[in-house]
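ok, trying the design again with the full structure, not the truncated one.
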């Protein structure tokens, strides 16, 4: 059944290659996983419950290849997450010096781990906040990417005709739904119209040297997280909130240096003319300039240990009315250890909101590889916060489990 589905998807490519079928390469893989989480306190209600099947397939002939990724999901808590979804679907052609990639794809820039500095083309799906793997919450974009260069230096330009934006949950039935001032919201999204002048475009120049990688980039884009403004109260008693997306420019750079068992990472970006939420959500959104900088250190001491530390700082230029946070910081800690001949992996990933009295989110997990194809993971998500983003979920600490079968 899986092969039949993929053959139908790639039928045009198969017909194109029928005269030289011996050189056509076909591959597929996928997984089925089920994830369930329960609140660690109170009524111990379900926080998440989802079962998913992902199928990925590719065709390759010479320098040309195609790739497609599909998700079939069932989520009884967040109904709109149930169904059959196209994740990625693109074609790619590569020559010695240049390449082209066209279609729906996830775009990653920069060197940050789990934080976005220059990596703002593919936004995030926060429907279940951070209760998903980081790779699973990235939203693909429809894009055209052209690259030119060799092994040491490569330039890339990108064109996104219709930008994508953060997916924010507002359903009151969703345990991860956002609220303002403790009230549930009805969001009115004012996204730019689908015109060529509203497209997203940019370029990136990368250099790969001995033990040192760095890049420079520029992007004409929009703020992917909206600026909010209160519009009133609906007849149902919900806050009516306008969400605005404004044109902005991002200029950025990143650096990665290897030194023995250490990797030093740095990244910085200027967000020019960015739209900001006004104080107390009252009045019109305001524009200002942001400087976002990140420093990170990865340590691989051996014995299957990994330690990754990061600190990201944001400074907003402008008057006091522009924002409540002219300086804010987010630190991350990621520590992991493999045991039992790599059949068991223990890990913890934490985010610390340095601007709000050390509010934090930490995800502990233990994964056991039962067989080559089946993995079982148990974990605990711990929230502690009195203010800031994590305060929305201060009662959402949860225990969870996942079973994954890969093929």
């Amino acid at each position: 059944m899986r092969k039949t589905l993929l053959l139908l998807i790639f039928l045009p490519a198969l017909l194109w290659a029928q005269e030289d079928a011996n050189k056509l390469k076909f591959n597929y893989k996928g997984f089925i996983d089920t994830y369930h989480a329960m609140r660690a306190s109170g009524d111990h209600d379900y926080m998440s419950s989802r079962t998913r099947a992902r199928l990925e397939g590719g065709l390759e002939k010479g320098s040309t290849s195609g790739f497609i990724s599909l998700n079939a999901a069932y989520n009884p808590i967040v109904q709109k997450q149930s169904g059959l979804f196209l994740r990625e679907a693109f074609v790619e052609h590569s020559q010695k010096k240049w390449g082209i990639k066209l279609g729906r794809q996830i775009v990653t820039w920069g060197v940050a781990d789990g934080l976005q500095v220059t990596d703002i083309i593919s936004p995030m799906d926060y429907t279940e906040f951070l209760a998903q793997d980081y790779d699973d919450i990235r939203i693909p974009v429809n894009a055209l990417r052209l690259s030119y260069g060799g092994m040491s230096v490569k330039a890339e330009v990108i064109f996104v005709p219709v930008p994508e934006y953060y997916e924010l949950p507002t359903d009151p039935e969703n345990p991860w739904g956002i609220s303002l001032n403790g009230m549930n919201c009805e969001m009115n999204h004012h996204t730019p119209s689908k015109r060529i002048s509203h497209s997203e475009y940019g370029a990136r120049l990368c250099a790969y040297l001995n033990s040192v990688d760095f890049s420079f980039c520029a992007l004409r884009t929009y703020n992917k997280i909206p600026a909010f403004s209160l519009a009133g109260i609906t007849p149902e008693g919900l806050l009516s909130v306008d969400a605005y997306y404004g044109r902005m420019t991002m200029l950025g750079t990143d650096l990665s240096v290897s030194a023995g068992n250490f990797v030093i990472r740095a990244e910085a970006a200027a967000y020019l003319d960015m739209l900001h939420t006004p104080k107390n959500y009252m009045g019109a959104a305001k524009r200002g300039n942001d400087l976002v900088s990140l420093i990170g250190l990865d340590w691989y001491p051996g014995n299957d240990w990994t330690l990754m530390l990061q600190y990201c700082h944001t400074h907003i230029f402008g008057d006091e009315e522009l924002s409540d946070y002219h300086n804010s910081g987010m630190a991350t800690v990621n520590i992991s250890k493999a045991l039992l001949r790599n059949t068991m992996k223990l890990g913890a990933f934490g985010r610390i909101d340095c601007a709000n009295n050390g509010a934090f989110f930490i995800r502990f997990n233990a994964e056991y590889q039962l067989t080559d194809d089946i993995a079982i993971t148990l974990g605990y998500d711990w929230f502690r916060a009195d203010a800031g983003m994590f305060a929305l979920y201060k009662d959402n600490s949860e225990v969870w489990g996942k079973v994954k079968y890969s093929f």
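Keeping the full-length input from now on. The chain has one domain: 29-406.
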